[in-house]
Amino acid sequence: MWDRIEPLMPADPVRGRRWADHRRTLGAIAWKYRTNSPWRDLPEELGSFQTAHKRLIRWAVDGTWEKIFAAVLAAADALDDIDWTVSVDSTVVRAHQHAAGALKRGPKAEASRLTTHSDAPAVG
């Protein structure tokens, strides 16, 4: 897979120091998302966490990730190796009672309960 990805990686900058190894940086980014650990917990053998994080952001801005994804997807499609699976998340998000339209307590609650904003008859 690296043979397909390597030509898509950005070249070293014309001025300044050479970049750290792209392959090691990709490993660091993959480790971060695979373990869901903080960047600062990146193992030393994967390089500096600042380098990996900055490279992740830079590649997102310059379109490197889109090029890599397109190349990997095209290669998998050519081999008929794509099996789409759809996953639906059923997470429940609860709103605070004030956001959910709960009735208010106190003297103002009686007046607001009798007010209607439609042609329907008032309940009360």
Automatic annotation (TrEMBL):
InterPro entries, sorted: IS402-like_dom, Transposase_6_like
From which domain of life does this come?
Answer: Bacteria
Task: Give start and end of each Insertion element IS402-like domain.
Answer: 2-69
Task: Using the UniProt annotation, give all residue ranges assigned to the region (Disordered).
Answer: 102-124
For this protein, the record's Pfam families field holds: DUF4096 (PF13340)
- PANTHER family registered for this protein in UniProt: BLL5188 PROTEIN, TIS1421-TRANSPOSASE PROTEIN A
What is this protein called in UniProt? Transposase
Q: Give the source species.
A: Streptomyces humidus
